[in-house]
Amino acid sequence: MIGITSYGAYIPKLRLERTAIFQAMGWFAPALMMVADGERAMCNWDEDAVTMAVAASRDCLTGMDKRQVQGLFLASTTLPFADRQNAGIVATALNLPDAILASDFTASQKAGTSALLTALESAQGGARRNILVAAADRRETRPASFYEMWYGDGAAALMVGDRDVIAEFKGSYTVSYDFVEHYRAAGRHFDYTWEERWARDEGYGKIIPEAVSGLLQKLGLTMADVDHLVFPCVFQAEHRNIAKKLGAGPEKVADNMHAVCGETGTAHSLLMLVRTLETARPGDRIVMAGFGQGCNALCFEVTDAIADLPPRIAVSGYLARKKTTGNYTRWLKFRNLIQPEMGIRAEAPAQTAMTALWRKRKMLLGLVGGICRQCGTPQFPKMDICVNPECGAHHTQDDYEFAGRPARIKTFTGDLLAVSVDPPHKYGMVQFEDGGRLMADFTDCDFEELQVGLPVQMVFRRRTEDEQRGFVNYFWKATPAPGAAEEMKRISFAGRVAIVTGAGAGLGRAYALELARRGAKVVVNDLGGARDGSGAGSSTPADQVVEEIQAAGGEAVANYDNVATPEGGERIVRAALEAFGRLDILVNNAGILRDKSLIKMEPENWHAVLDVHLHGAYRVTRPAMAAMRDGGFGRILLTTSAAGLYGNFGQTNYAAAKMALVGLMNSLKLEGQKHNIKVNTIAPLAASRLTEDVMPPELFERAQPEYVVPMALYLCSEACDRSGAIFNAGMGYFSRAAVMTGPPVQLGGDDTVPTVEDIADHWERINDLRGAKELADLNAATVDLMTPVQKPSSAAAGAEAKPAAAEGGVDVQAIFDGLAGTFKAEAAQGVDVVFQFLISGSGGGEWSCTIRDQTCSVANGRHDKPTCTLKMAAGDFGAMIGGRLPPMQAFTSGKLKIEGDIMKSQLIEKLFKIG
Ligand code: NAD
Known about the structure:
The chain is an alpha/beta fold. It is built from 29 helices and 37 strands. It has a 9-stranded mixed beta sheet with strand order 5-4-6-7-1-8-13-12-11, sandwiched between helices.
């Protein structure tokens, strides 16, 4: 049986929105609007027909033995060389055997199907087995033409052979006419096209039906016997008409891919065929046609072997891997349709020594390095001596292909000085996972995407072009592996062990499921009692969640202990240590409700609620803390509530317990600090049995626990380096809540005790939270209390003293009072500095600001050992802090003078929210 044995495709990652063409050129060619829908595939600047053919062929060769390939036919009308075997470049890049027939098929849009047909007939004749047919085109079009809209870049590849045939070749019918609806004279860049109406009516509309009907007649078939009809036609309406003329309903006609890709020239029939094969079922009959100075029609029947074809990217995969751009000038530059100044560096000689290219062809075109026969170390380039210092063997290198090996970025840079069509020029060291490394350019990515450790894949691309001599230099580049950046950003809990209390239902269940989904091993604790904590309890809720986790492939054990008892707390932690050997995460989540107003609140209801929430957290956290300390890592999450943070009628017991947890956190964060144990608190809002009778039904519907999970899990992750903070989370809304302290007001004299009347007189000022700060701990609070803004003068007694405003309306004291509130603790990891400020002019004074252990404290006066001293006038300081005077400008203009470590002073912008 002869036929297709494998398929592959390639569509460049870049897509140009057609509306962008219209937006840029519609003023000149308003009719473009008629076709300005969807997007067209667009080569990167370093792609052409040869590179795309290599990519499609690699896809087609997935799971195949390359040594069996005996021929490579390359079809294109946009080949980079008019007299150099382009198929030979592709064959060398693919490391195909030397003893193959490599041949170019060109000069007509039907060259793709001609190459396929020739390969099939050659296999039929028995001359050769396994012929790889690749077709690719990157056609140039004039700006603002319909063809710029209609065309797209792409490639397809098909393997033809007699073993494991997935689509059997049933026959063909060809007509050849010198019908010239367009042509491109030798050496010309653009096509010359005749009137579209004529091309449509006399060309596509007559010649394709003639060939397809001829084929059906030859095979004794009718359109009813055909499942898929595949033929190209840029004219959307005519595409439908031709099908109709041939008696094929829309369900049989393959989409011409106008909306998603555009017409890819000689590759297009093959690309559409590949797309059809991706979803075809055994027994399906496919008729395909290629159009261009006549028409080739071919018939295939899909076999059972199609189900065994190894997965590949193919058309669907490449259509999904895309980056859409609306940057039309970028398109123009990439196509060389505008010639911006490239600078004199671009004039550097680029001649290729053919001698070196011949000698090093495997290395340069095939990315072939060496592997030591003695120690197995791969290296690039291949050399006489093994790079392994422990081996160092001579002449032990075998060929080793690097192109398909997994690799990661080891170093990278974005060079704005180097010549690049798509600056910055991105390059760096690529480390192959099995060994070997090389300096490579990065392509198909933005600089921002690059990061050390990012998985990359090697792709064959144009490296340089010697315009003077008309020579293109190819080499391999690295591109981020699809989805790798997202995967690197993914917050994982692999290797972590977590306890979630009260995980049999509601929020706890949702936390446990997601923790397990992200790799954590979970102890699912739940007593299984009633909403108010009464009853004997049940193992069912915890067991069910464990089953769910295990069914999804995760690891979990159930625990039914009561968090509120000392034995319960111990046993819950022991369950983690016994089952999984360590403990990293504790989510104190178990909870009950017993709502009553205080007068009706009998002691049993008071104690029951405090027992579960407050004492429960203590009972479990205590042994957990010891286990985390031993492990050198810990994340503890406490669960508070808006009822505690802000108050709620009828919940004094619950509110007291929930707010007590905030106190627990405030101190525990300090105790956990040196053991890398972070403690935070979540105030959730979610639909559960606790809220079913308090939440309005429409809110209840929307408030699914899953919306709280991201915050809870983030606070439990390694990524979170915050400790001692409270976060509200519900329905996709997140905010931080904090205890804030207003600026202190000192009353009375140095030797006089303030009076009750003093309080009454300064009531508003004491209440004023302007310039309020979040204070790190009791010490910071004590220092703060004793650092008053300004002692109200006796003259001001009886009237509210207003905060002093310095010159230019700047209240410098207020700025320093508020400075700690603008501190970005997350940016201060590892920072240990003291900034001394000397502010001159009215309202000025001396303040020091100490940043240590991710906390910020501001004090009046001079520090003994400031890291750097900043001197400014009050007005300029106000402008700088207000964001109106950029620090750099203040410095260069002399308004800001810095003594000491100038470099450290630059941290100010990073550490504080300015403006
Ligand atoms: P829920 O009733 O659905 O879940 C609480 C779970 O804790 C139950 O499965 C219960 O069996 C378990 N539990 C109760 N007492 C226990 C004990 N002594 N030992 C072990 N397990 C016990 O409620 P939920 O809404 O998911 O609440 C989870 C936590 O979130 C609670 O601490 C609650 O106070 C808090 N909270 C919830 C909301 C909300 O809107 N749902 C708002 C604020 C705070």
